[in-house]
Design a protein that fits this description.
The chain is of the alpha+beta class. The chain contains 2 helices and 7 strands; from the N terminus they run H-H-E-E-E-E-E-E-E. Strands 1, 2, 3, 4, 5, 6 and 7 form a 7-stranded mixed sheet that branches. The longest helix has 25 residues.
């Protein structure tokens, strides 16, 4: 038996399809099912979108130079950074970090933060000099210029 619709032709690979097969499914049930799926999808989408908050990352930087009272740079001075809120070095959380000044007395800390301007504390130490502590600093105060005074002998 030949039919103009190839899906209705008999083949040895599959059972014949007819219009009666599709007519057996009540249209109202299939419409209700698809409407319910659509509503469920929109409800799940609304819940997921409502739970998400935008994540904004900021660049956190504390930098400066350490000098003696004559204006000469102090190399290898230990600089300690303590941050009141967590910042990140790639994905590692950081609240405290140490570094040393270079031969020009410069230091720099660079991190990623979820806060625009978290307050921090900087500590400076060098053998033969008085320690200095800068508390409540913010990035607007960058670059820092710190003078370490020699210890009286």
């Amino acid at each position: 038996m030949w039919s103009p619709n190839p899906r209705l032709q008999r083949t040895h690979l599959r059972a014949p399809l007819s219009r009666k097969t599709f007519a057996a499914i009540p249209r109202s049930a299939s419409l209700k099912r698809s409407a319910a799926c659509g509503v469920a999808f929109l409800l799940v989408l609304a819940v997921v979108m409502g739970c998400l908050r935008p994540v904004v990352d900021y660049s956190f930087r504390a930098e400066g130079v350490v000098t003696d009272p004559g204006g000469r740079p102090i190399p290898n001075a230990r600089v300690t950074l303590e941050i009141s809120r967590t910042v990140y070095k790639v994905i590692t959380p950081v609240t405290k970090s140490d570094t040393y000044t270079d031969e020009n007395g410069r230091f720099a800390f660079g991190y990623i933060s979820h806060d625009a301007d978290p307050p921090y504390t900087l500590g400076f130490e060098k053998l033969g000099y008085q320690s200095v502590l800068l508390e409540g600093e913010v990035q607007a105060m960058n670059p820092h210029s710190v003078t370490l005074k020699p210890v009286a002998k």
